[in-house]
Amino acid sequence: MATNQLAPETPLHAPKLPLVKSLAESAKLTSIPSNYTYFTNPIEPVASDPEEHSIPVIDFSLLTSGDPAQRSKIIQDLGKACEDWGGFMLINHGVPESLIKAVIKACNEFFNLTDEEKKEFDGKHVFDPIKCGTSLHGRMDTVLCWRDFLKVIVHPEFHFPYKPTGFGELAFEFCKRLRKLVRELLNGISENLGLEECYIEKTLDLDSGFQLFAANLYPPCPQPELAIGIPPHTDHGLLTILAQNEIGGLQVQHNGKWVNVDALSNCFFVNIGDHLEILSNGKYKSLVHQAIVNNKATRISLAIAHGPPLDAIVSPAAELVNNESYPAAYVPMKYKEYLELQQINPLDSKTTLNRVRVQNL
């Protein structure tokens, strides 16, 4: 168990934190600094029953095959995964493995830039188009995460660091393909919810939707049993697509237990975000997940979040609300305001989502 929640903002004039990569590469480092101590008791064991805790696998090619029977079956499977797990492994997704590996390699090259070179990409506000930093809110955490990050807003306008050379071009192609992928998944999800196929796409104007590229670096940690990469949390938005190098570390919560997400080749992990839980009026649940660290190898993950436009007001779909039997379970809120609220709340499971939940249900 953690002794502290990761707290919201403290004054921005606090001293800037060193990047974890630099700390991890220090020859003198044999233990973690005390402000990186997250766990004081043994880490909870992961689930061991392979049948009860087997992460669903969705074959994307069946969703787009043109065969009505296959599509109907996979949409049922997709809905079950969203209800029972809040996430799934996605295979045969059509994004070239070579492109995924090239983006991960370019991320590694970015993190290998000197601290001085990366300094120009410092960002402080949630809507700064490019932010490079450490932990969660950088200088604003009481317990620090063993993680450096690069976050870039890539849609509706594309931004990206200009170095290393070619990184932006790779990321542009990668993110464009993911938007297409997410649109198809959301069409299937709309159908499963009993809505029109393009309901989410049209209602939330996904042509102008918000897409955030986040790259995470988790260097080897001398005391992985004490540190955390990212604590338990859910994501904002509709769907997050995750890719990673061959080093595992993602864990998802299922039936009260932690389940390891294996780093499978050419496979994405997709998780439900808070705003799909809101839109579905709670039929789908956003997925609580965390990142743990190890003492042997560097893990790099890519988490690409997809949401509506920042000025979109997200509420339960009217077709899924019945004032008597299924009243609206969430208060409507502008997406931008939700992201701002997330920044000032402790990162602790579903803290932010609970702020917009109707309390008397």
TrEMBL record:
A GO molecular-function annotation: oxidoreductase activity, acting on paired donors, with incorporation or reduction of molecular oxygen
Gene3D superfamilies documented for this protein: B-lactam Antibiotic, Isopenicillin N Synthase, Chain (2.60.120.330)
Species of the source: Nyssa sinensis
Alphabetical list of Pfam families matching this protein: 2OG-FeII_Oxy, DIOX_N
Residue ranges of every copy of the Fe2OG dioxygenase domain listed in the record: 208-308
Protein name: Fe2OG dioxygenase domain-containing protein
Family membership: Belongs to the iron/ascorbate-dependent oxidoreductase family.
Lineage: superkingdom: Eukaryota
UniProt keywords, alphabetically: Iron, Metal-binding, Oxidoreductase
